[in-house]
Amino acid sequence: MVGNEWINGYLEAILDSGAATVSEDHQRPAAASPKKDRGGHHFDPGHFNPTKYFVEEVVSGVDEHDLHRTWIKVVATRDSRERSARLENMCWRIWHLARKKKQMEWEDFQRKAKHRWEQEQGRKDATEDLPEDLSEGERGDTIGEMAQCETPRLKLQRNFSDIIQVWSDENKAKRLYIVLISLHGLVRGENMELGRDSDTGGQVKYVVELARALSMMPGVYRVDLFTRQISSPEVDWSYGEPTEMLTSGSYEADGTGESAGAYIIRIPCGPRNEYLRKELLWPHIPEFVDGALAHILNMSSVLGEQIGGGCPVWPYVIHGHYADAGDCAALLSGALNVPMVLTGHSLGRNKLEQLIKQGRQSKEDINATYKIMRRIEAEELSLDAAELVITSTKQEIEEQWGLYDGFNVKLEKVLRARNRKGVNCHGRYMPRMVEHELRDKNHTISNCMVIPPGMDFSNVVDQEDTAEADGDQVMRFFTNPHKPMILALSRPDPKKNITTLVRAFGESRPLRELANLTLIMGNRDDIDEMSSGNASVLTTVLKLIDKYDLYGLVAYPKHHKQSDVPEIYRLAAKTKGVFINPALVEPFGLTLIEALNNGLLVDPHDQKAIADALLKLLADKNLWHECRKNGWQNIHLFSWPEHCRTYLTRVAACRIRHPQWQMDTPTGDMVIEESLGDSLKDVQESSLMLSIDGEKYSISSLRDKETEKADPEVQDQVKHILNKIKRQMPEAKGADNSEKQPDNLANSVNKYPLIRKRQKLFVIAIDCYNDQGGPDRRVVEVIQEIFKAVRSDSEMSKNSGFAFSTAMSISETLELMKSGNIQAKDFDALICSSGSEMYYPGFQQCSEEDGKFCADPDFAKHIEYRWGHDGVKRTIEKLMNSQVGQGDDRSENSSRVVELDSQSTNDHCVSFLMKDPTKAKHVDDLRQKLRMRGLRCHLMYCRNSKRLQVIPLLASRSQALRYLFVRWGLNIANMYVIAGAKGDTDHEELLSGSHKTVIMKGIVEKGSEELLRTAGNYQREDTVPGESPLIVHTSVGIKSEEIMKALKEASKASGM
Hints:
It contains 37 helices and 26 strands. By secondary structure, the protein is α/β, with parallel strands linked by helices. Strands 5-6-4-3-7-8-9 form a seven-stranded mixed beta sheet, with helices on both faces. Pathway: Glycan biosynthesis; sucrose biosynthesis; sucrose from D-fructose 6-phosphate and UDP-alpha-D-glucose: step 1/2. One of its GO terms (biological process) is sucrose biosynthetic process. Pfam families: Glycos_transf_1 (PF00534), GT-B_Sucrose_synth (PF00862), S6PP (PF05116).
């Protein structure tokens, strides 16, 4: 231990003190006046115990629970030599822990410093790129200006009175459809199992009550709360019900509320028979999104028939709660082109900071346990897509969201000022954090605070007006139940800090003599069956009760119903007690509102301050009555009606978007009487299917076979249509003419895309390129073998179509097909430029007079949101071609890393040639820098890492499939995505979802995935399910038989 003198000194003091000092008690003479050390600990110089001092100071400093157990063993050891060995071992453990903590703190400091520098550099780059067309006065729109010199209470009252005038009964004619998402935990309307586990807490109660409250607001017709369907023996059967009605809504009385009200909609995703904690749900989010999208499309159609005059009623807003639901909401918002709102509840970066400060786990261990990096990326994506972020405190905005790449307070002020003046921001955007402005009745600007959560106060009544409270489940614990009650209500989560409260109570004799302590720590059956974190907290609480001999003074019931909570609060009020929330992190706890939000603020880390504050409130009856009076005056400022009025007003101020199509979409009878060329092609495709003995079906035989089995009415319809088709077909005059029919068919132009009639779609997404980034010849072979496989099976090919999804431009794609004698019109859709362009070969509105293809204009408009083509191009060139940390001081002679690829660049795709791939930055690194500059987009390396392509935020190859679902009604569950084992950096996005995936082994030898993520980020298993019946693999090689075998296996799958 040479070189560690402080350890030597403490160790000698411990060994010299002997075992006798360990049992020394805390009693001191009554007249003694103990001094305090620098840490606030009491000690008497005459009775200084170095062993106790060392353990308390050093062990508490590293927060390592294992050391306490080791210390107990040391105390129990009688052999002096063994005891010395144990003490030395313990000292070394402490020293290593302390050194590890210091190292982690230094690394954390460096990481924060680098992040702050990058954020500031990003802000400077963004403001430099924006033209100087704002005056100094216009740039002065700061957050400080919003903070008027008035008390929070007056400010809140003024703002809420303004909001009532903004959203009122006059909006009842709107009839809005609102979607809320809360993915994890156990969600149901009644008998919520709050506290059962760390995923079923206050958020569950909040979202259910929000759904109910919104459905009762004027102008809101229906509210759907999406959550995961769980059909597991581990949980109650009610969590497996697809639909649960919460309330019938505000339209029930007028007879127009057939589908009105609030509903819980449970969407299956992941293993159907398992209840997964939220950290394990990430790979299954795309499947949840696809299921939610199917429900929304169906419900929009139903509501359109009921209240929309036959036009779909799209969601007014999609609101995600927590990171996982934010990820879902971002994808759904992009697929539907409707506004998204986010409520974070608790944030990943803030939790990461807290865990690193504790020093008990490295960043790698934290990430492995909590999937924290995947969570943070979901929150960043939510910031990219959100129109509005609901926050509850200013601290949440500045100190928590301020940690994120996608939010910069200073840049947000600049961009907001430009937006107000109608000045172009060149694609840069920062989400609003609801520190917003509202207009009062005189149309003047009034600054509004953050939106605090709402609460249902229907159970809150004056104590004098209530009957005698029945609290046997709590009172049975107390020796003297008439003493004032200290009430704490939370999950047994380490961050809720319950153990500090128990220590404060146990070590304060006046507090123990004056009051009882009630701990409502969720519901439990067996501590051994709980999660490790919750079980550890409960075990520690029970040990502390035993340590301080608090039997008869502390209540800790095992079970309670949600309906019992008001009764428990009334018990506390009846005994003139107090409520305490000692949580270390609480953005805006519902328990604070339930406790009327009045009292004293204390540092949750300061045990003595907690005890002193409790004593002050309990002993000073005048202060107690004053807090109670203030609570009654302020409570309804936090009611659900007030919250919903504020919420709806802010959402109404967003840029409302919904799907709008320029191209005509056939409906009803138009489908039957459409161009006969479409029907001709369908029947001709059927006639090309070969029977087992090699004979071809003719139109006549097809007609005969179809009509033999049909009802007379159906026979007439079939004959009528087939006869019309037959009249349009050229008469066969020999083998030569019959062979030419497919060619004539290939040249026909359809009035509507054939994809709208498909029941199945085979999407070929093979990212196979040569060393120069050009398409490999094997792609053509794969296409031909897939065609052969599908068309060889009559059942598989029935009403089926094909799509080709690639990073190549349309010109390169057509050239590839021409090289393999493949007709472009063999495909119903071509998804080009990494998902930024959509083409329908053979569709007249997507064909120019000279035969060239035109991209789908509706898709182009659909993905336009937050796209800044020129800003992205300039920023990428600057970031990639500049030396790290050197800004624009790059030498003229230094080589360029990227160069614009003008041939592959279009209005919605900026493509760069990689001149020096060895200097390529990872996708997550580039995305971070773009976010810091206010640019929201989707970027990927493709074509064997020889191209870097940047496309709009709402564009991607996976989102293009959802667009086909929304636009043409082809359900994603009926799509088959055929991909290689490797591919472009967006390859992972194509694999998961409700579609079937066939992975062809041995086709793609090299992809671009090594440039996707830097070390320490989340991994592939956080985005793609490890085992899923929806994902199948072929054997090595390109054979139609193997492809068909895999397709049939995938067709049998219907989820996990």
